Amino acid sequence: MTTREFQGIELERVREHVWEIPKEGDMRVPARVLASEPLLEQIGDDKTLQQLKNATQLPGMTKYAVCMPDGHQGYGFPVGGVGATDTETGCISPGSVGYDINCGVRMMKTNLSYDDLQGKEEELVDTLFANVPSGLGGGGVVEGDAATVEAVLDRGMEWALEEGHAVEDDLKHCEDEGVRYDADPSAITQKAKDRGKNQLGSLGSGNHFLEVQRVTDIYREDVADSFGLEPDQVVVLIHCGSRGLGHQTCNDYLRRIEKEHGDLLAQLPDKELAAAPAGSDLAEEYYGAMCAAINYAWTNRQLIMHRTRRVFERVFGRDWEEMEMYLLYDVAHNIAKKEVHDVDGEERELYVHRKGATRAFPAGRPEVPEAYRDVGQPIIIPGSMGAGSYVLRGGAASMAETFGSTAHGAGRVMSRTQAKKDYWGETVQQELEDQQKIYVKAQSGATIAEEAPGVYKDVDEVVRVSDELGIGDKVARTFPVCNIKG
Amino acid sequence: MPYSLRDHTADVGVEATGSDLDELFAGVANGLTACMCESVPDDGDRFAVEVTAEGLEAALFDYLDQLIYERDVRDVLPVDHEATVTEDPATGEWTVAASARGVPLSAVVAREIKAVTYSEMTVEETDDGWRAYVVFDV
After folding, report:
1. What is the tens place of the pLDDT at every residue in A151-162?
2. Which residues of A36-66 are buried (b: 16+ CB within 10 A; e: fewer)?
3. H runs (alpha helix) in A261-280
4. pTM of the model
5. Is the pLDDT reported for residue B1 higher than 70?
6. Quick one: which of A52, A442, B73, B132 has the fewest CB in 10 Å?
7. Which range marks the domain in which residue A285 is found?
């Protein structure tokens, strides 16, 4: 048997791209890493594997904890981690969802071609930057009051539709049609709501961005047809989450777990894995709060997308409907969801935690919106601002291998502190423009340095592994043209 | 400098030292500011924050969480931190009475730190005083 060892942790090769850390010590289940040899080298280089092992100690963990090909060290649960816990005997873990609840990505299509865009890149990037709030203190598309925040938490994109920030088609092409009815706005603290008021419709900073892209490659024509994608088409990708409201919600519940379920916490190797026992009042409250934050994040991305339509109208002098600017799909990659999965021949309801992992349900699953039920759910995998992004579709093997999940991005390999030593924001920006005709605009030069293409794993390799494992199949590749960030 | 920024693949670590807890807590908070901004202008008014928690680590966590909250609701970057950390011997609770200067976000180029985390958090007494390590989510 082939084995590999990193920092004292041994992995056994199960088959191509599948590695297992056998159950030992306090682990409740084994752990699996889905990676090619080069990706495994990177994953083994930081604390990802130890964090993955730690995550297997969560009560009710089922089958195995899985690390996706883009996995890297996070806090508590690793980024790129998938863990399913039993909803009756297990737990729900806010730290294993992450601070940015429903951080996710959506892609909007257009009928414009790259030719239509050339010559207008600078005007477009400037107008987007001026009109889509980003960075710290930039406000939001909507100046929210308390009642607005309540409505958004309660009804998500339905609120956006009522208020004229969405059309019905948007809801039909969003996971859960853009609203989680399990939401309980009263489980969100006043503090979190305070933070949410002036950030509704804003990108934030860090790795969040809005990018205008062109489709460069199509790998599966039939699926691309169903998705409405073709070569040279201009699309828009939006990556952000639930902003301060979500971050505060995570911390509020981490602290409550510490106070109310200290006994469970004491059994876990990392405080950030903090979990509320299934069936406890706190587990129910967190689930309601998380679902409300999910609604907030969907609305946040919706407001940004709708604002982007207006920007395109201004730059191209046409109605957005005429430019057919419709939502392809919206995926969450920091989330826990009650889902029913087959575990050793038995149907069980599980909290599937996906922290830096994307749901990847294949054709036929009832949860997939009707528009895509015959081909599988679209999955959007953003790359760095100097590399391609991908559209995949849920693969046939995802249910058996990964609780219906795949990767969420390229995954970092270099720290932010190191990136600022190695890169200078203005230089990165100029090189992208001169060498690749990619127009970048950011609030802070340091953000460009921290997000330089060189700090990320090779997204092509991440997607190749996903495709070869059959958990998320390659459909199309896109390449950046304009990028704005915080 | 009583703090330094440490490598972390996705996020940022802050290591701080202090001769006492007051200096230590203010040092971590100054590290948080440094994660968001390289160059701090002189303007802004001071504001106070106070938190009480059941333990020392929890008090540090709540203090930093409160600073991030104040940043978002006041629209200011908290800088130049001062803190007084005390334990109530009767209850074992720790209180952080602190203040910071709030630089209006419109007057500064700053990036967002999403949250303080408990991941690898360390608050320990050393031969020279105190040392803390905190990971912030970016």
Report:
1. 999 999 999 999
2. beebbebbbebbbbbbbbbbbbbbbbbbbbb
3. 262-267
4. 0.97
5. no
6. B73
7. 3-413+456-485
Predicted pLDDT of residue A1: 85
Residues in chain B whose Cβ is within 8 Å of chain A:
5-12, 36, 38, 54, 58, 61-62, 65, 68-69, 71-73, 75, 77, 104-106, 109-112, 114-121, 135, 137-138
Q: Is residue A439 part of a domain?
A: no
Q: Is A410 annotated as a binding residue?
A: yes
For chain A, helix (H) and strand (E) counts, in that order, are: 17, 20
One-letter amino acid of A5: E
What is the Cα–Cα distance from A351 to A102, expressed in whole angstroms? Answer: 15
Instruction: Give the strands of the sheet with B76-87, arranged side by side.
Output: B45-53, B94-104, B76-87
Minimum mean pLDDT range among A168-172, A228-232, A372-376, A443-447: A443-447
What residues are paired with B116 via a beta bridge? Answer: B136
Residue of B10, B114, B135 lying closest to A412 (CB–CB): B10
Contacts of A330 (CB under 8 A, 6+ apart): A104, A105, A106, A173, A174, A175, A178, A298, A301
**Residue type for A252, please?**
D
Phi and psi, residue A206, nearest 5°: 65, -130
Query: Please, what are the domains in chain B?
Result: 19-40+47-108 (3.55.10.10)
Which of B6, B79, B111, B138 is best to mutate for the A interface (most A CBs within 10 A)? B111
Give the dihedral sign, CA B104/B107/B112/B118. negative
User: b/e for B106-129, b at 16 or more Cβ within 10 A?
Assistant: eebbbbbbbbbbbbbbebeeeeee
Q: What is the pLDDT of residues A27-79, one digit of tens each?
A: 999 999 999 999 999 999 999 999 999 999 999 999 999 999 999 998 889 99
Q: Could you give the number of structural domains in chain A? A: 1
Kindly state whether residue A351 falls inside one of the protein's structural domains: yes
- Single-letter code of the amino acid located at B36: M
Among this protein's residues, is A408 annotated catalytic? Answer: yes
The count of other CB atoms within 10 Å of the CB of residue A189 is 17
Residue A105 located in a structural domain: yes
Mean pLDDT of B60-72: 98
| DSSP-derived 3-state class of residue B138 | coil
B72 with A195: Cβ contact below 8 A: yes
A430 found inside a domain: no
Cβ within 8 Å, pair A99-B77: no
Looking up residue A273, the CATH number of its domain turns out to be 3.90.1860.10
